[in-house]
Structures are given as structure tokens and as C-alpha cells.
Amino acid sequence: MTVQQSLAPRQPDPALGQIIKLACLAVGGQGGGVLTGWIEDLARANGYAAQATSVAGVAQRTGATIYYVEMAPYNGGPMPVFSLAPASGDVDIMISAEMMEAGRAIMRGFVTPDRTTLIASTHRALAVSEKMVPGNGIASSEEVRAAAEVAAQRLILADFEGLAVKVGSVISASLFGGLAGSGALPFPREAFEDAIRAGGKGVEASLRAFAVGYEAAQAGVAPAPVAAPKNHAQVVPQGSAKLQAEWNRLTGRITALPAEVAELALPGLRKVVEFQDLAYGAAYLDRLETLVRQDRADKAHAFSREAAKYLANAMAYDDVIRVADLKTRGERFSRIRREMGAKDGNLMHLTEFMHPGPAEIAGMLPAGIGRKVQDSPAWMARLDRWFNKGRRVRTDTMPSFLMLYTLGGLRGWRLKSLRHAEEMAHMERWISRATAALGRNYDLAVEIVKCRRLVKGYSDTHARGQSKFDRVLAGIALIEAREDAADWARRLREAALLDEEGKALDGAIDTIRSFA
Questions:
Q1: Alpha-carbon distance 66 to 63, whole Å?
Q2: In Å, what is the CA distance from 390 to each residue of 251, 289, 384?
Q3: Residue 68 DSSP SS3
Q4: Cα dist. 382→363, 369, 373, 374 in Å?
Q5: Angle CA(137)–CA(140)–CA(143) in degrees, nearest 5?
Q6: From start to end of 123-251, where are the E strands?
Q7: Three-class SS of residue 43?
Q8: What angle do CA 309, 429, 132 make, to 5 degrees?
Q9: Any idea what DSSP says for residue 135?
Q10: What is the 3-state secondary structure (H, E, C) of 51-66?
Q11: 32 with 171: CB under 8 angstroms?
Q12: pLDDT value of position 434
């Protein structure tokens, strides 16, 4: 966490008519309204006149709600006339419930170096525009941090979301604690806590989150929540000595790999075993060991190191079975209950949106039958009419949960399906292309392996990614005899990641065709 300037309690500025102006940016589900209510109640309970307003955003993560509070000492007489919305350059305290919202507050001029205390959470809730980018579309938090250090008079940054979740509460309470700890308001800590108690709901949990937020602001160091390391031994069922012995044998094979490769091979093995079974994990290591034998130690095994990662991704593809399995796992229900703040006595209704297309249904069939169905326009039209409607499935009810649970348990069937046959054939073509390039252009072979990152997701997302992957490899074929083929392969891959439609990739391929 970053804390700048003194944390002494702030006194109202007579030059501003003793009005304190506070704005808060929060998105759906972050409790911005609750936070604003506490601030308003706090001010009034301590002899201030206060007014709170809000301007709602469009939707979650496409527009934050702006909450605005003005307060001033009041001893009777005419009530102060307060503004209804914050103005650029006229905000004393700016609270942001997410890092990019802090950036937007700075861009809108709500944060100025002559007066504004900026209190912001460093965690990220990704915007729709960030999620839509095929590659890494996540905006830089470090750029926002750098801008905040220049724009704010006083800056308090901490992972208020993580702090709140760690004590079983929500971010609004930890931000309220951060506000109290900052000393930006002329009220003692006890007054803040009284405002929470006066709310009467979730008091104990809110007070716990308030305390950690307060301590973070006071100490100047926010203890980041530590994620528990993954225990790779937990891939197999506990108590099964035979399965555990087989898992240990597989991990023993990894120790024989070059250190650079083994580092990524272990999580890769875990991924494919979790996706299917131990035999499938052995098949993963068989393929990887073959690639290691063809690799070069003088190149630090860059080829097989990348293959360890992308081979696992290719073998653990997203299909209907995997989606159903993930949706019915106990840890997922626990996470949702925790995020929603559900207590032991609360009932939680959970609705899943299922939208399988005809390709997903045909892919579930045995390979031979599935190909005939897929090649038949009439049958594909029937599947589309029967299934492609979009269904809302209540997995908090027994029939719907059992349906998904049964579907998620069809791992044994997966390897016989058309989808699996297609994925494995596509994977073998990719590996063959990469190994064929090893002898004549090592760097190009590495770039071809990295191209597999284009294929990911489920349904339409997977189809678009695979189409881009195939077009990139077709583009590479045009320039693979050139000395700079590896550079062009990297440019093609990066162009494919720039936009969903593939316009940048089309432009890059046209450029190659102009000289190839």
C-alpha cells in the first residue's frame, strides 16, 4: 500500500465554506450505496449537515456509479445548499472501489494535487472491453498508480477487496475503515464504528473489515492476502494408495526432464490429469518427452519448455463435459456463497445459462456417428432447433444439479467422442508443423508452438480462436523459408490477438502476400 503526506485528521477549510466534498466510484456489487449511507449517517451523528446523491452507471463493469456526499458543520439556522454532483477540481476526498475506477476519477479531474485525498483499492474487476480482447487486454494498474502519485495530494492504495474477503466481509466496510484511518474526515474511529452499528445488518463482519482497512491505512502497509499454494498431490483421491503411487511415478518422470521444462511440466501434468485421468497424464508426458529428445540444450530447451505449457492446454480443451464438471464442483458453490456474502442460514438460488450449439452436441457423439451428423445439414439443423435456444438451469435444485453432475461425470466417454478425435488431430498437425521447423529454423519452431495460445475457450470463442490459429499457420507457410520467418510468425500471432474480428490479422497476411 502507498500512503503519502501526513495522516493527521483533516479540518474543514474555511476558504471552502467548511464544506467537505467526498466522491466515491463503485461498480455493481461493491456496496457503494451502503458506504455512502454510512458516511452520511456519520456526518449527521456528529453535528454536520449532509447530503448524498448518486448517478448510476450503465451496468456492471461498463459504467461505475458516482456517489457524492457534501457535509458541513451545522448548529441550526438555514441549511447549507449543497451540490448534486462532483465537479472537476472540486473534490476533497475521492474513494475508488477498484483500480481502473481510480484512473477514471483522475481522468475526469476529480483528483487534484492541491486538495484531494485518494483512497483506492488496488484489486481489479475486469471491464467487458478488457475481457473481449483475444490476447491480454488488461489495462496497466501500474500506469494508474503512477498517475495517482502525481495527481493526488495524499494517496492511500491497498487491496481493500482482498482484506475484506479475508475476514468474511465486503469491500464497502474495508473502504470505510480506510477512510477512517486516513484521517481525511474530522471524526474519531469510534464514530465510524457507531455508524456501522447503527446500520444493524452484518455488523460484526463489517466491523472486522473496517478494522483491517483502518489498520492498513494507519500502518502504511497492506498485508496482501496470500493464496494457498496448490498441492499437486491432491489431484488424485485421498486414501487411494494405487492412484497415489501412479501419480508419484508420473511426477518422478518429470524430475528427469531438463529443469527449464520440468518447471512447466508439473502444472501441465496436473491440468491434464484433472481434466481426464492418470493414463491421460502419462500420454501427455509421452508426447512431451519425445519433444525434449528433439530439443537443443544450447537453446535452454525453449522449444520443449513452451510445448510443456501449450501441449497441456491443447489436451485439456473446454467441452460440454468439462463445463458441466466445473459448474458442479463444491468449491465453486463455496466461492459463490462467499462472494455473495451468504450465511449458513441463507438460501441461495443459482441459475446457470446453458447455450449448447449443434457442433457441441454432435461433438459429444461417438466419432463415427458424430462425423455423419456433422456432415448432414439436415441433422445439424435439427440439433440447432432442438438445443440452440439458451436455457436457464437452476443448479440449486436437485433435478438440474443431477443433470449437470451426470454430464460432468462422463469423462470415460470423452475419449470416444468426435470432439476429442478432432482436437487430437488438430493438435498432431500443430506439433508436426513445429517439429518440422526444428532442424532448419529453431526460433520459428518455438514461435509455431506459441501460436497455440490462440486456441482457447468454448463454443464460438473456440471456433474463432481455431480459425485464427489456422490462418496464422497458413501465413507462416508463406514466409517460412526466410531468415526472418520467426519475427513474421510472432507478428502474425500478435496481430491475431489484437481484435476479435481478425482485422489486424487480415492486414498482416496481406502484407506478407505483397512480398512473399
A1: 9
A2: 42, 43, 11
A3: strand
A4: 15, 15, 10, 11
A5: 150
A6: 154-158
A7: helix
A8: 55
A9: S
A10: EEEEECCCCCCCCCEE
A11: no
A12: 96
For residues 189-215, one letter each, b for 16 or more C-beta atoms within 10 angstroms of the residue's C-beta and e for the rest, the string is eebbbbbbeeeeebeebbbbbbbbbbb
One-letter amino acid of 225: P
The rounded distance, in Å, linking the Cα atoms of 195 and 206 is 11
**pLDDT averaged per 10 residues, the chain (length 516):** 41 55 84 91 93 73 78 85 90 92 90 92 71 60 85 91 90 94 93 92 91 86 36 51 89 94 94 94 97 95 96 93 86 77 78 80 91 92 80 81 87 93 96 94 96 87 90 94 94 89 90 87
By residue count, the chain amounts to 516
Residue 438 in grid coordinates: 526444428
Longest dimension (CA), the chain: 88
CB 146 within 8 A of CB 102: no
In sequence order, the 6+-apart residues with CB closer than 8 A to the CB of 447 are 476, 486, 489, 490, 493
* β-strands 93-96, 20-26 pairing: parallel
**Residue appearing with cell numbers 481426464:** 276
Give the cell for residue 79.
441549511
**What's the gap between Cα 255 and its chain centre?**
32
- The three grid cell numbers given for residue 90, joined into one nine-digit string: 472540486
pTM over 0.90: no
Q: Which of 48, 57, 56, 22 lies closest to 176 in space, CA to CA?
A: 22
Q: How does DSSP assign 297-335, residue by residue?
A: GGGTTHHHHHHHHHHHHHHS---HHHHHHHHT-HHHHHH
Nearest to 16 by CA among 114, 107, 149: 114
> CB burial class (10 A; 0-12, 13-18, 19+) of residue 338?
exposed
Reduced to 3 states (helix: H, G, I; strand: E, B; else coil), residue 23 is: strand
Using the structure block, give the residue that is written with the C-alpha cell 463444491: 330
Phi, psi (5° rounding) for residue 480?
A: -70, -15
SS3 366: strand
